[in-house]
Amino acid sequence: MSVEIKAISPIKCELKKFIQFGIDHYKGNKYFVPPMFFDEISTLMPSKNPAFEFCKAKIFMAYRNGKPVGRIVGIINDIVNQRTDTKTLRFGWVEFTNDKDVCDALFNAVENWGREQGMTTIVGPMGFSDMDHEGMLVEGFDEMGTMATIYNHDYYPNHMERMGYKKDVDWIEFRITIPNAVPEKYARIAQIVEKKHGLKTLKYTSRKKLKDEYGQALFDLINEAYDDLYGYSPLSQKQIDHYIDMYLGFLRLEDVGVVVDENNKLVAVGITMPSFSEALRKSGGKLFPFGWWHLLKAMKGKTDVVDLMLIAVSKEYQNKGVNAMLFADLLGGYIRHGYKFAESNIELEDNQMVQLQWQYFDYRQHRRRRAYRKDL
Question: Is-above-0.90 flag for pTM?
């Protein structure tokens, strides 16, 4: 039977099938970490995701003999295209069986849609913004994934290259061993930076207070610090409001680092959290009937791995050692809690300043992922 491609309406009942296929596709794979089911649905619904104010999307699924065998989303981010003076189509949420016909049919569908919209280039995997998952795994298939990254089968890159897609950029990831004490040199650098620039770290015991005092400033800082990064889409005010409500309400505050200047202006932030990988695997990405219990345990820190979700430093203080000050504070909490490892999540492979901070620790680079590009 030939491959049938269907356009999927972005409504909950259709998206449930779309998301469930992406989970079932990895049944029995011990390294795959399923996404949060309701987050995925909300991201793909125009009524829920503020990014649809400046993005268009088209969702496709592939079927053979009436059974789903693949999926893909095409995205046009008008703001990024305007900023870069390009006509670029993004693809994301891509999954397919190891079948040339399935793969070709999916990508032909999304590429043709992009051409119809006037696009001249396609790149991905990428989402609507940097808050979504990006980068196809090309190394590290035998490593447990994280909540913040994509896992895919090892045959995916071969199909991308077969179809004429080329590397556009790579991200790399590190697994860092948490030491028994903050490295002496690291602590000394942190003290020097703190004194020289009149900075201080803050700790919160109230999520509401953190949200009220620095919720807006945190995302303003992300927009400033990440502005020059690959494919960055500045967060709109509606997106900021959305993410403040979505994320700041369930952070484990001991794993959050905040650095301010003498006027209490935010200059650096580190959002880290206990790894949800095992909890998501046990729950299948769903809260019910019993998934909430596994996720609640993870939220309380019942794991020996901490995920470094987001680190941002204002441009004024970049390359001045503020990262050392931030991590010296966070490390103290990690050690007290008993974390054994930290997952860096994605870092651009040429971002040497970020990678230099790991030189004081025992670490290994264990995953690599890639954004592919092709002319349409």
Answer: yes
